[in-house]
């Protein structure tokens, strides 16, 4: 009896202690954002800000180049919005086609889609850049969001797997009731795949929010910067070593990620466990 | 009859149409273009000039930085992926063994994966490994010498590898789901037969988990090979010190968009594709020796 209690205790010391150790850097970042910039590395070992200050947040929020951090957040939200619209519409249509319709070449295109899942972006990066610059799309969101309207293999695959679990009898019943293919998609399947669409939306949000390479390639004026670009610029201007402001804005960019995760945790965990996303 | 078949095909292509069009416009045409550029000398302001295999021979014979980037990337992949998966499996097994509060721990272990790709975390990592950062403080506390993480190419690369290992959470979730699907009767039967922990691990857990493990090894290897953000942020875009963190993607980016050697960068991208394809092929090929599928009859 006592032995099992000791075991229980040791288990939580080990597993819990290791978890705290892993999260320590994030806690340190949070705490440091409440220290004065000059103190951060002098008192790096201490988790209690002394003196406690909020000055870094308004200072970081001022941004740079005449654009406040609010602008960068607004830009990122617009970016996320178009990615969501693009992925949700295109991936659900495409997934329905693959999962439910029989047509010549279905196996071929499905295989192609699975292959593109593993294709390094670098192979298409340069010609895409040239195409988008010929179209006059540089320094706009278009090169980043337009491809989203043509599907994303990860989410198509996720939705196909999900649709395949829905009994076909539902489609057949709707057909007998006189529904055409589009109505089956819209009225029968779409309402049933909401959980998988939620997973798609959440991961689209994460990947867009964190996307750095795309904005680095295509956005070059500060009024269009996303938060990841803005943080990158903070780092480049580090000579003034305003650590506090940089840490504060780093925390600001992490908070939405945490909030979305805690609200929609179930979809995140299920999405990863079933498809191995990320 | 013919009409209905035509209609069926038409509906199919209406639905998957966006994918087909997107694949042609954003994947296959750019891929072909990039293959062509890879045989040319192509700067920002001139048109592509055919130089045959010039870019490819230059990579392996005249460009020590290329070989350096290949070397650090291989170390990054071979150092990061196995350790990351080992941690993921170990922690998944620990969480699977515990009953209470596992949900909270699962969340805590997953958080690094959740935020790991962000610039904020790369900035954080850069600062905890600074000369006066908490990593060196901890080393000092253990009576070890401080390491100049930004002065030593090897140390800087390991700093990146640690960042990759730190994000074992998503693999852990997948393993946890896999472990939960192993029937407990297997373990009970093994216990009755007197099997010890290691026997159960090697005879039940690993074989049952092997398809999931295969999938993870492939996806993580590909993703690790293409890592860009942490190297870009942590070295402030330089790949330094002394090209110690010049990961393949970062060098390719620099060649393409800093030195404007579009042809050379395209050739690098194609070699990358071949390496990724070869790695995937090799891992698949070895899988027949160690991956166990349940339907298999022995």
Poorly predicted regions of chain B: none
Q: In the CATH hierarchy, what is the class of chain A?
A: Mainly Alpha
Name given to the CATH homologous superfamily of chain B: MetI-like
Tell me the count of domains of chain A. 1
In CATH, the topology of chain A is named MetI-like fold
Rg of chain B over CA atoms, rounded to whole Å, is: 24 Å
Quaternary state reads: heterodimer
H/I helix tally of chain A:
13
Q: Remind me, CATH topology of chain B?
A: MetI-like fold
Provide mean pLDDT of chain A, rounded: 87
Q: What is the chain-wise order of helices and strands of chain A? A: HHHHHHHHHHHHH
Beta-strand segment tally of chain A: 0
Largest sheet of chain A: none
Beta content of chain B: under 5%
Q: How would you sum up this structure, described in words?
A:
- By secondary structure, chain A is mostly helical.
- Chain A has one domain: MetI-like fold.
- Chain B has 298 residues and is an all-alpha fold.
- Chain B has a single domain, classed as MetI-like fold (Orthogonal Bundle), CATH 1.10.3720.
- In chain B, strands 1-2 form a two-stranded antiparallel sheet.
- Chain B is globular, with a radius of gyration of 24 Å.
Which characteristics define this entry?
heterodimer; A: 278 residues; mainly alpha; MetI-like fold; 0% strand; B: 298 residues; two-stranded antiparallel ribbon
What is this entry, summarized?
Chain A is mainly alpha-helical.
Task: Indicate the topology.
The complex is a heterodimer of chains A (278) and B (298).
Chain A: H1 2-32, H2 56-61, H3 69-100, H4 106-116, H5 122-134, H6 142-145, H7 153-164, H8 168-176, H9 181-192, H10 194-210, H11 213-218, H12 227-236, H13 243-275
Helix pairs in contact in A: 3-7, 3-10, 8-9, 10-13, 12-13
Chain B: H1 2-37, E1 40-41, E2 49-50, H2 54-61, H3 64-97, H4 102-115, H5 119-128, H6 134-141, H7 153-166, H8 169-180, H9 184-192, H10 197-225, H11 229-234, H12 248-257, H13 262-290
Antiparallel strand pairs in B: 1-2
